[in-house]
Design a protein that fits this description.
It catalyses: UMP + diphosphate = 5-phospho-alpha-D-ribose 1-diphosphate + uracil. This is Uracil phosphoribosyltransferase. By secondary structure, this protein is α/β, with parallel strands linked by helices. The protein has a single domain, classed as Rossmann fold (3-Layer(aba) Sandwich). The protein is 32% helix and 28% strand. Helix 3 links the parallel strand 4 and strand 5. Helix 2 packs across helix 3. It binds 1-O-pyrophosphono-5-O-phosphono-alpha-D-ribofuranose, uracil and magnesium ion.
Length: 207
């Protein structure tokens, strides 16, 4: 499985701000925004580029752009806090949306929104969700994408639990995972330990 842990000191510092229980919502959102830039930056490190000759004011040289910009798919609510920053780095990307709420008892994802292009064959997809816990929400999203022909999917997460990683690894076509940390475990309520709490609530308030 293709698993990248972005453990750059600046990423660790943003993640620490997010983990801190004293961090308020505006500061939490700002730290997630900045961490997202780092995750997207690393996730696109080996992306194919198109080379075009261009003129600087001084000379001719090679210019570059992404050959096949990924479809960006934030998983609402928490993934919304990654959407604008991913788009900032990849302005010509298209964006789809998936809305899921995890049932607090069963931990199963309940879908409430699905807005995706019908045909994703040949298109890379970046799924944006800060939390990979049991992996149920990410697995559900990846199945939606695979149903539309996607074969090149990257899950970008601030935090990942070993349980969620193993669940995705067991899929017939596992995604690539880019995360800032692999945490210790899940607790009995399905929360990541040490984690950061509920990423949706910490950005937008409890529902
Ligand atoms: O790996 P899992 O066990 O499925 O848990 C992870 C999911 O939980 C959170 O969403 P939540 O359901 O809390 O919705 P929210 O973003 O609206 O708060 C998170 O953003 C993931 O989507
Ligand atoms: O720790 C967790 C687990 C799932 N979803 C969250 O927002 N946080
Ligand atoms: Mg939540």
């Amino acid at each position: 499985m293709d698993l990248l842990v972005v453990d750059h000191p600046l990423a660790k510092a943003r993640l620490s701000t997010m983990r801190d229980a004293r961090t308020d919502s505006p500061t939490f959102r700002a730290a997630l925004h900045e961490l997202t830039l780092m995750l997207v930056y690393e996730a696109t490190r080996n992306a194919p580029v198109v080379t075009e000759r261009m003129h600087t004011p001084v000379a001719r040289t090679d210019g570059y752009r992404l050959k096949n910009p990924p479809l960006l798919v934030p998983v609402l609510r928490a993934g919304l806090g990654m959407a604008d920053q991913a788009h900032q780095l990849i302005p010509d990307a298209q964006m789809g949306f998936v809305g899921l709420a995890r049932d607090e008892e069963t931990l199963q994802p309940t879908p409430y929104l699905e807005s995706l292009p019908a045909d994703l064959s040949g298109r890379p997809v970046f799924v944006l969700d800060p939390m990979l816990a049991t992996g149920g929400s990410m697995e559900y999203t990846i199945r939606l994408l695979a149903d539309r022909g996607a074969t090149d999917v990257t899950a970008l997460c601030a935090l990942a639990a070993p349980e969620g990683i193993e669940r995705l690894r067991a899929m017939a076509a596992p995604p690539r995972i880019v995360t800032a940390s692999i945490d210790e475990r899940l607790n009995e309520s399905g929360f990541i330990v040490p984690g950061l709490g509920d990423a949706g609530d910490r950005q937008y308030g409890a529902v």
